[in-house]
Design brief:
186 residues; mainly alpha; Rna Polymerase Sigma Factor, Chain: A; Arc Repressor Mutant, subunit A; 2 domains; 0% strand
Length: 186
Amino acid sequence: MVDEAIRRVLGGDRDAFRVIVCEYQDMAYSIAMSVVKDELIARDVVQHAFVRAYNKLAQFRGDAAFSTWLYKILVNEAFRMLRQQGKDKMTCTDPLLDLVREYDPRDVVDDQQQRQYYVNEALMRMPPNESLALRLFYLEEKSLKEVSQITSWSVENTKVILYRARISMRMILHDYFKMEKQSFDL
């Protein structure tokens, strides 16, 4: 379906790009949020990335999957936006107290939803490169080589970032659960 949409766009059918946007918009937003940590900025990143992809679609050679090519544009746009905003070091300095205040885990309907919530909150508190690596590798199920292509990191650097990201995730979740337990003990 996406391959056909690409052919149609390259043939002059501008409306066919909607198929591509519909196919990738959710994951694009998720990846953008991993990097910029702000909903409005993430929406801008996704919009700019899709415009850039549309304008450069003729340059897509098919050496890698289309999603890899698109996510590379998206990641570059997200980090460009971070630099523009002066937020290269976006990390949460509050030790997750805001999370405990705004969320009561007893309200969660099921375990799957609760796990998803914890993972997303931890990703939001991680450095952009680490949350991006985890999201691409585990949630988008990209290979190390694909993550490397998308991010322009070497495969070795990708492995190091994934290792650090897993440690960060573990520490954030550990701190969160420790604080959560303390808040329920009160």
